[in-house]
């Protein structure tokens, strides 16, 4: 159904007598309840705005405003010309499968580090617990000892630093401090589902930019800059889910396209940090006053450290830290000091080097087996393999029936894209790769019954 299809039958739920409040917010609330109850199902196209407005005896702008509210919550997607449709019954976590552990099933959906490969925390925590002024209220953006420890390995010189409670918290804090609902943000496509949901929650308009070999697509990037985005977001290396990286040449070319008085904030999210094999080439080499680098230490040093560091111009750090202070006060100095200790500890460095090699072997084992079976795999680094398939649903269901759970690729895109599945390798034994590749290759070629 499109905006011009005025003759389409009006569904039963479009009944003014059942909607006591026909304001934009009242209509949005009513439709949200229908979506969450299942009366309006995933993918269902809603009647045209003018048809609904006529039936409910309101102006078309009232319906458009209601749809805007529901899109911000992730319940609807689409436009008037192509048709507005139901995106999810769960709103902002649309497209994400349930993540409960299933006994007896090989769950390859989430990119968890292997606990056996994480560095030991005991000595780091003992020392951190004896630091000066512990349990005093705290206002600094980062523990000085942690800043000294991270600076030698930081991709470029950053003017200031702040600590957040993990990578997603860091991304949220920066975006919350520099944007308003409705702002456009250029986002690598595909990307991490959790971060897409976070951006939708903030009310941002996502402009997807294809991410391929060497990084963001130059033509799409140049065209999207004309929309005057508030920010640009991408992963410079071990990109999730593709496992690709941005080359120095591509970064330089993209930086040269950003001209004129409007300069969006460039956000680089380094998820694996020291576990990534590729180099982090940064926009900061060309635009230091407009570049934010976020490095997560969760997968490399331990999820329970809940730490990510933001490096950025002073004004960006000041505003992001204000958001952190407002909502979370500060990140534990015990955890900051523990990370600082580990960053300077030779034994921890050796442990990380061994972990990096092991993760690489696991990834390579599966990618090599898939390529040998004719599956075109571009993945080179990271915790997962990005597998092209004929049908995501058919492939995921086929593998699920064999006791293997994978992530459907649709959750990694803001819009339509080619079908893929994401397969985690971070905990996958090397000797399991041949059999798994055989099953994936078979499932990848299955076409869903029409």
TrEMBL record:
Keywords: Aminotransferase, DNA-binding, Pyridoxal phosphate, Transcription, Transcription regulation, Transferase
A single GO molecular function term of this UniProt record: DNA binding
Domain HTH gntR-type: start-end pairs: 21-89
SMART domains in UniProt: HTH_GNTR (SM00345)
Pfam families per UniProt: Aminotran_1_2 (PF00155), GntR (PF00392)
Signal peptide per UniProt: none
Family statement drawn from the similarity comment of this UniProt entry: In the C-terminal section; belongs to the class-I pyridoxal-phosphate-dependent aminotransferase family.
Protein name: Aminotransferase class I/II-fold pyridoxal phosphate-dependent enzyme
Organism listed in the record: Microbacterium esteraromaticum
Lineage: Bacteria, Bacillati, Actinomycetota, Actinomycetes, Micrococcales
């Amino acid at each position: 159904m499109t905006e011009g299809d005025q003759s389409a039958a009006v569904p039963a739920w479009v009944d003014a007598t059942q909607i006591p409040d026909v304001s934009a917010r009242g209509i949005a609330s009513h439709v949200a309840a229908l979506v969450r109850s299942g009366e309006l199902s995933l993918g269902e196209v809603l009647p045209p705005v003018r048809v609904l407005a006529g039936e409910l005896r309101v102006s078309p702008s009232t319906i458009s405003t209601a749809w805007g509210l529901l899109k911000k919550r992730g319940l609807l997607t689409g436009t008037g010309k192509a048709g507005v449709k139901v995106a999810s019954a769960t709103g902002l976590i649309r497209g994400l499968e349930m993540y409960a552990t299933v006994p007896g099933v090989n769950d390859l959906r989430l990119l968890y580090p292997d606990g056996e490969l994480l560095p030991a925390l005991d000595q780091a925590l003992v020392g951190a617990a004896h630091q000066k002024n512990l349990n005093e209220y705290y206002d600094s953006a980062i523990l000085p000892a942690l800043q000294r420890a991270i600076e030698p390995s930081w991709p470029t010189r950053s003017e200031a630093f702040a600590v957040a409670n993990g990578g997603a918290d860091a991304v949220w804090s920066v975006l919350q401090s520099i944007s308003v609902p409705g702002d456009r943000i250029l986002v690598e496509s595909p990307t991490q589902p959790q971060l897409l949901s976070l951006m939708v929650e903030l009310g941002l308009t996502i402009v997807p930019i294809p991410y391929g070999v060497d990084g963001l697509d130059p033509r799409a990037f140049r065209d999207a800059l004309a929309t005057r985005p508030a920010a640009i977001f991408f992963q410079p290396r071990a990109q999730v889910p593709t496992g690709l990286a941005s080359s120095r040449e591509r970064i330089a070319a993209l930086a040269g396209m950003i001209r004129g008085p409007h300069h969006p904030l460039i956000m680089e999210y380094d998820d694996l940090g020291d576990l990534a094999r590729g180099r982090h080439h940064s926009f900061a080499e060309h635009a230091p006053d407009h570049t934010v680098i976020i490095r997560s230490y969760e997968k490399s040093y331990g999820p329970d450290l809940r730490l990510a560091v933001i490096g950025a111009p002073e004004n960006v750090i000041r505003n992001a830290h204000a958001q952190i202070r407002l909502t979370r006060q500060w990140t534990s100095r015990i955890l900051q000091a523990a990370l600082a200790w580990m960053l300077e500890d030779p034994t921890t460095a050796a442990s990380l080097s061994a972990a990096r090699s092991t993760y690489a072997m696991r990834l390579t084992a599966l990618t090599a087996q898939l390529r040998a079976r004719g599956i075109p795999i571009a993945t080179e680094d990271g915790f997962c393999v990005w597998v092209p398939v004929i049908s995501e649903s058919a492939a995921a269901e086929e593998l699920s029936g064999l006791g293997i759970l994978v992530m459907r690729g649709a959750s990694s895109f803001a819009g339509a894209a080619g079908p893929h599945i994401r397969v985690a390798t971070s905990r996958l034994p090397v000797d399991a790769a041949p059999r798994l590749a055989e099953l994936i290759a078979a499932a990848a070629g299955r076409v869903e019954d029409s």
